[in-house]
Design a protein that fits this description.
This is Acyl-coenzyme A oxidase. The chain has 21 helices and eleven strands. It has about 625 residues and is α+β, with helices and mostly antiparallel strands. It has three domains: about 250 residues, Butyryl-CoA Dehydrogenase, subunit A, domain 3 (Up-down Bundle), CATH 1.20.140.10; about 140 residues, Butyryl-CoA Dehydrogenase, subunit A, domain 2, CATH 2.40.110.10; about 100 residues, no CATH class. Strands 1, 2, 3, 5, 6 and 9 form a six-stranded mixed beta sheet that branches. Strands 4-8-7 form a three-stranded antiparallel beta sheet, with no helix packed on it. A two-stranded antiparallel sheet has the order 10-11. The chain binds ligand LE4PLURH and flavin-adenine dinucleotide.
Length: about 625
Amino acid sequence: MGGRVNEDLIKERRKCTFDIKELTHIIDCGEENTIKRKQIDNYILNIKELWDDVPEEYLSHKERYENAIKKAFIVLKVLRQLHTGNIQITDHRTPTNVYSIQDGIFRNVNPLLIHIGLFWSTIAAQASTEQQAEWLQPDSSMIGTYVQTELGHGSFIRGIETTATYDSTTDEFILHTPRLSAYKWWPGGLGNTANACLVMAQLYINGTCHGLHIFLAQIRDFDTHKPLPGIKVGEIGPKMGFNTADNGFLGFDNHRIPRTNMLMKNVQVLRDGTYVKPKHDKLTYGSMLLTRVTLISDLAYQLSKAATIAVRYSAVRRQSPIKSNEPERQILDFVSQQHKLFITIASSHVYRVVGLWMWNSHKRVTADIHEGNMGQLPELHALACCLKAISSRDASALVEQCRLACGGHGYMMASNLPQIYAYTTAAVTYEGEYTVLLLQTARYLVKFWRLAAEHKPLPQNFAYFEDYIKKNFEQWRNSPEGIIEGFKAIVAGKTKAAYDTLQCNLRNGREFEEAWNMASVQLTNASEYSTISRNDIEALQSRYEELLALIRPNAVGLVDAFDIRDEVLCSTLGAYDGRVYERMMEEASKSPLNEDVVNESFHKYIRPVTMKNKL
Ligand SMILES: CCCCCCCCCC/C=C\CCCCCCCCCC(=O)SCCNC(=O)CCNC(=O)[C@H](O)C(C)(C)COP(=O)(O)OP(=O)(O)OC[C@H]1O[C@@H](n2cnc3c(N)ncnc32)[C@H](O)[C@@H]1OP(=O)(O)O
Ligand SMILES: Cc1cc2nc3c(=O)[nH]c(=O)nc-3n(C[C@H](O)[C@H](O)[C@H](O)COP(=O)(O)OP(=O)(O)OC[C@H]3O[C@@H](n4cnc5c(N)ncnc54)[C@H](O)[C@@H]3O)c2cc1C
């Protein structure tokens, strides 16, 4: 859409006091990455077939999927071409990625998300060298997914009921779904797209259960795409979001696969049925760990999209004067609005930085694991659980705050804020539900608190537990170091309270698991344990308000620095030119309800009632 840039946005950009490009390069981890990202954006976003004439929202459930799958395979083809052209795009966690622009192409979810994001990465991480050589061919016919959750079990994966029983006479595993609750339910791309999958199932050899293992199973014929004999597969129906992801269900009726289809990098079943144990029994859960780490950066990106939309809109939108004799003000001038939005910008930066740090930690710990050293795995798992849980919860709360900050117009699908919300809130549940993951971190903390309480040696990372016990914490200081000290005091105090409750429940004769359950609210909720005083809080509050005023002139610059193209933002409210009302009108004109001047339902239903006595 052509036309002038909104005057208020022009003025905002003139006011900006820092170099926007420099911040973009910092976000991209370097100017080179920015250049590459833009090249890839240009290349992919210029493919005309990827753009819709009719907005996605007006399509039926079936049409949406078919439209998304058309685009997904155009993108897959391009990805392969770019890959062979030696452009580093497969490492989607670095800023040089194509992952982010898919939001614009699909306005929803790529049906190949799990194929690319989990299927391939799990094979790469958990299959033996020979299996990888066979399965990771660039021209492979396999379109796969990651099949773990069942109708009856999601969080408690040890309760998974699908079985894989070794038959040494034929050198095969028999995959079986023993009852309705064992049906696989949820995997993305399973409903219609995938012809293969990685299945999590209980391994049985000679009547002994060895727990959960991952198996590669073909489920549809590569040529006809019909389900193979013994496979019952389909799609689970409409959801709050993710409606182009064809999440599916799957049941096995004694479906046979070769023994060599178990992922065998860390664990093996030999021809004679000998079971060779892994070095750590949670290595099978590695894909969940990796995805949790990846999600932190993805959620940071979703926050930057929501912030860009809401800040630009707030600079364009004028509503109410502050003094009654003045003209109406940009809503961005209201301090309460700044509070709603600047926290979203800040959170995006926080989770971006933490996400990158976690990504590098994951690389380091994985390299150690390859060398046989598992020592850092528990800490990484505890951190990934906590950060995935809070980043998803914060992101969905803040995206919703941005939507509300756009008033009624934020409720329009054309603002794209409802879609961003539906996407982020799903992450609170999938890949480890929020509370369940926080309890994993609590379990880790309580272990170290027990050591501290029993005056046993603690690793350096937990020295502050001892400081807390010895009351070595300094008085609150209003500085970054002081804030970190404050957080340490909160963690120590919260862990102590939960631990004390746990001990009290145990003394009262409860078994450990029951005592744990009774303490679980304390284990997940933060309390105020710090040396902060009322005066400190007042000082912090006024400093916070000063900071909002300092950020105000740079607000638009800060979101421009995220450098998200209009085609990716997909928002009438957040486009770079700020022509909000023109875009809203243009989008409204696409509504099928505006196709006829008089809708036929008038003649069928309305007129017979309203004109009944007048005809
Ligand atoms: C234009 C271009 C387009 C291109 C598109 C490309 C796309 C690119 C990719 C983008 C990539 C990513 C984006 C992300 C989007 C992803 C969408 C994802 C969709 C969702 C997928 C799923 O949901 S899959 C299913 C996930 N399921 C879960 O997460 C289940 C949650 N439950 C659990 O994980 C576990 O059961 C549990 C952790 C809760 C507990 O396990 P369990 O009961 O077995 O154990 P215990 O509690 O008894 O603990 C035993 C000890 O083991 C430790 N533990 C547990 N888990 C782990 C682990 N993972 N690693 C290490 N250690 C672990 C636990 O701490 C205990 O330790 P101790 O205390 O020492 O005994
Ligand atoms: C959009 C989307 C995409 C998905 N994609 C996939 C996929 O590709 N592949 C796949 O395998 N799965 C997928 N899933 C499934 C997902 O991983 C599970 O939904 C998730 O792990 C949560 O499990 P659940 O649904 O069984 O919830 P439940 O475990 O039944 O949780 C329900 C409630 O019980 C509480 N609860 C459960 N256990 C405990 C406990 N021990 N202590 C305290 N509270 C507890 C939870 O906190 C929650 O409040 C997807 C889900 C969604 C929503």
